[in-house]
Every structure is written in C-alpha cells, then in structure tokens.
Design a protein that fits this description.
The complex is a heterodimer. Chain A is an alpha/beta fold. Chain A has helices at residues 3-29, 45-56, 70-75, 80-87, 120-132, 148-159, 187-193, 205-212, 246-254, 256-278; strands spanning 62-64, 111-112, 136-141, 164-170, 173-174, 177-178, 197-202, 221-226. Chain A has one domain: 3-Layer(aba) Sandwich (Rossmann fold). Chain A has ten helices and eight strands. In chain A, the strands form two sheets. A six-stranded parallel beta sheet of chain A has the order 2-1-3-4-8-7, with helices on both faces. Chain B has two domains: 5-170, Rossmann fold (3-Layer(aba) Sandwich), CATH 3.40.50; 185-308, Rossmann fold (3-Layer(aba) Sandwich), CATH 3.40.50.920. Chain B is 43% helix and 17% strand. Chain B contains eleven helices and eleven strands. In chain B, α8 (193-206) links the parallel β7 (185-189) and β8. The chains are: A alpha/beta, B alpha/beta.
Chain lengths: 280, 310
C-alpha cells in the first residue's frame, strides 16, 4: 500500500472516531449519558494510524487500552452500534452495559477492558503477551507512564524481548496538570534506558507508519506520540483552543475525496445514534 | 507412609506444569530452598518464571497471564507482600469475569509464617483480599485439603487465594472435626492455629470440659454446614475462633456471620492489635495452645459467674 492510500484509509478511521466522539459530546451535554465519559477526539490519529498499519499486515493483536479508549475500539474495528449501546448502558453493548465509557472491551477485536487504575494495562499487557506469545499493543497516557509499575513492565518486556508495542498518547495533561509540572524526564529516554526501541514523534500517520512498519511485533517497541486533546479530561467541555488539529491537517492534504468521506461518515454516525436512541 | 504436605504441593505443581502447560510465577523461586521445598526444580523453559522485584507490576503481569488462560500459580513469598501484590489482582483479576466476561483464573500461593519477621512479613494478611468480590480463599493445612482445593481450582475459573503456612509443610495428618451433642464450647480455628487448637481441645477434654472443634479451611465463600450450626446453637458457651491474621480482620467478619446464623456468642483470638518486632518479646504471635486453653476457661468461668449473679 502506498503512503497516500494508507493516509486515506487512516483518515477514514480517524474521521469515524471524531464524529463518534462529537455525538457522544452532545449526548453528555443533553444529559442522556450521565456517567463520566472520556473523549478521545483530537487524539484519534494515534490509534487510527496504528490500526491501519496492523490491518495492512493482517494482524489481530491483543489490545490493552485505558480510560480514553473509544478511538482504540473504533479504529481496530469495534462495532459502532455496540459502542453506542454500551454508552447507553444496554445489554447489547460491547461490554454488556457494564463498561460505561472507561471500561469498554470487545472479544471480537481482542480488546481487554480497563478498570480505572492508570497504567495497570501495561502490566497486564506484558503478562498476557509473555504467556501467549501473541502480538500485543498497550496504550498509555503521558501521565500513566509515570506510574512505577508501568516502568517495571517496560523493563520486563525488554528483558523478555516480547512482541509488544507500547504507545503513549501524549496530550501533555494529567487531568489539567501539565507534564512540565510533573516531571523533568522524557518517556522515550526512560524507555531507551530499559533497552527498548524507543521513539518520540508527532501524531502524523506518515511518521508513525515509518517508525513501525518494519519492526512492529518483531521486538518490544515504545513510541511516545504527541497529540492534542479537544475535550476535557472527563465529561463535556472543551479544552483551550487547539491549533494544528491532525484531522484537519490530513483532510486538507487528502483533498476533496477526504471531505466527501468525512461528510458520509458524519451523516452515518449521526443516523446510527438517532436510531439507537429511538430504540432505547 | 504418609506424605508431607510439602511433597503434595510439589507434586501438584509438577503436574500443573507438565500436564496442563501451566505457569508458576514468583520472585526468587530458585533461591531459599525452592520455596521451602514446595516447588519442583524446574526453570523458565518448564514454565517456572522468575519475576523481577516489582511486586505491584508482578500482580498485574500474572493477571495478564491468567487472562490468556494459562491458569498461573503465583507464589507470594510472604503474605505481608500481599499489600503490594493485591492491587491489580483484587481490582482486575477478581472483577474481570463479572465485568468483561473474561475470567482470570489464577492460583495464588501466599506463604505465612509465625512471628519473628517484623512489621510486614509476619503471619497472615488475607483480610485485605477478603472483602473483594470474585475471589475464593482457602487455608489448607493438610494433603487432602490441598488436593481438594487444587481440584476445585481446575474445575472453576475464579481467582483462588491459598493461604499457606510454612509450619504445615511437614504435616502428614488429616484433621477431623469433633461435633458432639451438648458441648460446652466449639473451637473454630483457621490456618496454623488449627494445630494449637487441636492440642488445646485434647487438653481441655482431659480436664473434663466438653470441647468440640470445627476446622475451617474454606474461608470464602464461607459456608456454614447445617450440622455445624446445630452444634453451635446447642453449645453452652458458643464459639472460640482463632487465626493468625489480625483479630480485626476476617476473624470478626466470620464471627459475625456465625453469630447472625446461631445467635450464639462468638469469641475471637488472632494477632493482637500491635505491630510486630523481631524477637520473642516484641513479635506478634498467633494464639498458642495454652493461650487458647486459658481463653476457654475464662469464657466459661465468666459466663458461669454471670449466670450465678443473675
């Protein structure tokens, strides 16, 4: 697959995630969803880019995400209807209505649920990868990578040379505390110290593709991706104005075709939400 | 010739590794006498996995292994380390079946020992696990009990916590309950206090007291058999429970359950509410046979006095 086609396919995934999250945002504002939601709008290019790469390689890795997991779920092929139902607390939801927003899971796409203790998924992902030998992806945030047990997991994954990818969705915030107020080290440097193949990059699909295309799941890799959160840590509210939204940049690059795809997806998601809400 | 419990655990572990392709995780497994002689001398290629000295992460990593169906054994060298190891087991593995329909069956072997090991490592610490849903807790002290628990584990898909005691590893005998009619009091010991309670019961019966005993090793779920309840209801002075965890842990919870079902007084003796040091004087030991004897005598005499005074 050439890079332009890859970017277009990734765009489709990212657009799906963005419009899905925008719909969730509305439902939270309308108080149809009343529990804490963690929106991944703005950050969708991280899982979308990796999911597209993995899809190209015809792999189905085990996925260990965290609280901000809607885009992971959707990018890797989770059912849109089942996620809507999950957020509406229905038994037909991807986690039988038990997962809310934070703890979503899906057996169909090998996505394990998260319990809410930040970074615990690094330990479980490493254990699952070690015991099964299957390709595994662990998604972390720039805050959870500070947890001591995450560091211990990185170290053991390196020691055992596991087929695992650690992805840090680095949006610079722990709720509202900036990274510069929390630490003076870079995640990439720490991972490197553990002898992991480690990278620090922007959420550009092209950059992510180039870094991972050759060695993904051939050895343990750590990739810290700078990205931008559009909505609050939890619930419906907007963060300070974000410049350089990746979806907008890619849409501009991909041109008319992308705009058409985006509109189609937007309408489809809107319609699906309306249908599911009517069926409530 | 009867086998010591140590050998039984070793044999079960061997079978689990070889027949069922299981895994055994823990720290320093190959050191300190292969976990007091309970672990066969096998290595990573056989499924015996040395974990780093990162207890919190380790609990999560073993949970990961359980999630992919390897039914891991997880050895926690001292139950004091439960405080570090329990976090992801209690909050993820135990809840995974209910929330995500994804069981994480694991067989946790928590080793305890009597006194002399300071503030963290001394005795049992199972109370921190006890309150969590989705966990089953056992404290087998004999061969048959251990075999029964392992068999149950292989038939189910839950998190099993096995509260072991180093003192039991030499044991070759089985325990028998004594539930006769018209008992003065019934001892209900847990873990290593079962050995001392047996001694106390025999001594007290020689003195003319009528003392029964119900050995507890299936702690959660805690099912009280009808036969036990009837005997407790008919006993003159109720129950004395003993354990080598803190007295304000599961002991009081279980005592309350018995009290609710029988309306009888349930006394408890466990570790005292104090921190443990390293010497005989400063440590915190579980109740000895003589302490149990004295407690029974005191319960009975107090009640008699109360009755006499109206």
């Amino acid at each position: 697959m050439n890079i332009k086609k890859y970017r277009l396919m990734t765009f489709q995934k990212a657009s799906l995630c963005r419009h899905f999250e925008n719909e969730v945002y509305k439902r939270v504002q309308e108080k149809i969803i009343n529990f804490p939601v963690y929106l991944s709008a703005g950050q969708e290019y991280v899982p979308s880019s990796i999911a597209q790469l993995v899809h190209n390689k015809k792999l189905k890795p085990m996925l260990f995400g965290q609280h901000r997991g809607h885009s992971i779920y959707l990018s890797f092929g989770g059912s849109v209807i089942e996620l809507i139902d999950e957020l509406l607390g229905k038994k037909s939801g991807c986690t039988r209505g038990m997962g809310g927003s934070l703890s979503i899971s899906s057996k169909k796409i090998n996505m394990f649920g998260h319990e809410g203790l930040m970074g615990s998924n690094a330990c479980m992902g490493v254990g699952a990868c070690f015991s099964s030998g299957k390709p595994t992806i662990v998604f972390l945030g720039d805050a959870s990578v500070e947890e001591d047990y995450v560091l211990a997991s990185l170290s053991w994954a390196a020691k055992k040379e596991l087929p695992i990818l650690f992805v840090v969705e680095d949006n610079n915030y722990a709720v509202l505390t900036k990274k510069e107020d929390r630490r003076d080290w870079k995640a990439k440097d720490v991972a490197k110290a553990f002898k992991l193949d480690s990278y620090d990059t922007q959420d550009s699909p092209e950059k992510i593709f180039k870094i991972l295309k050759k060695n993904i799941f051939k050895k343990p890799i750590f990739i810290n991706v700078h990205t931008k959160r559009l909505y609050w840590h939890s619930g419906a509210g907007e963060d300070e104005k974000v410049f350089g939204d990746r979806l907008g940049i890619e849409m501009k690059y991909l041109g008319k075709r992308a705009t058409e795809i985006d509109n189609k997806i937007k309408n489809r998601i809107k319609k699906l939400w309306q249908q599911r809400l009517e069926k409530r | 010739m009867a086998t010591a419990l140590r050998e039984t655990i070793k044999n079960i572990t061997f079978k689990h590794l070889k027949k069922f392709k299981g895994q055994v995780f823990g720290q320093n497994l190959t050191g300190v006498g292969w976990v007091a002689g309970t672990l066969p001398k096998l290595y990573e290629k056989d499924g015996v996995i040395e974990l780093p000295l990162a207890d919190v992460a380790n609990g999560g990593m073993v949970t990961g292994s359980a999630l992919v169906g390897r039914r891991p054994f997880y050895i926690i060298r001292y139950q004091g380390y439960n405080w570090l190891n329990c976090i992801f087991i209690a909050n993820y593995a135990c809840k995974s079946k209910e929330i995500w329909d994804k069981p994480a069956p694991m067989f946790i072997r928590g080793l305890s020992n009597e006194g002399g090991l300071g503030p963290a490592s001394t005795s049992s610490h199972i109370s921190i696990f006890y309150k969590m849903p989705g966990i089953k807790i056992f404290s087998p002290m004999s061969n048959n009990e251990y075999l029964k628990v392992y068999k149950k584990f292989m038939q189910e898909d839950e998190v099993f916590y096995i509260s072991e005691h180093r003192k039991s590893y030499e044991n070759k005998l089985e325990f028998k309950n004594t539930i006769k009619k018209d008992l003065d009091i019934i001892l209900m010991p847990i873990s290593v206090t079962r050995f001392e309670s047996e001694k106390a019961k025999n001594y007290l019966n020689k003195l003319g007291y009528r003392v029964g005993i119900i050995h507890l090793f299936e702690l959660k779920p805690f099912i009280l058999k009808k036969k036990w309840l009837n005997a407790i209801k008919k006993s003159k002075y109720g129950v004395l429970m003993t354990d080598n965890d803190y007295v304000d842990g599961i002991l009081r919870t279980l005592a309350h359950k018995i009290n609710e079902k029988t309306n009888q007084t349930v006394n408890v003796m466990g570790l005292k509410d104090k921190s443990a040091g390293y010497t005989v004087k400063t440590s915190n030991f579980p109740p000895s046979a003589s302490e149990i004897v004295n407690k029974v005598k005191s319960i009975i005499s107090k009640k008699k006095r109360r009755k006499k005074n109206g």
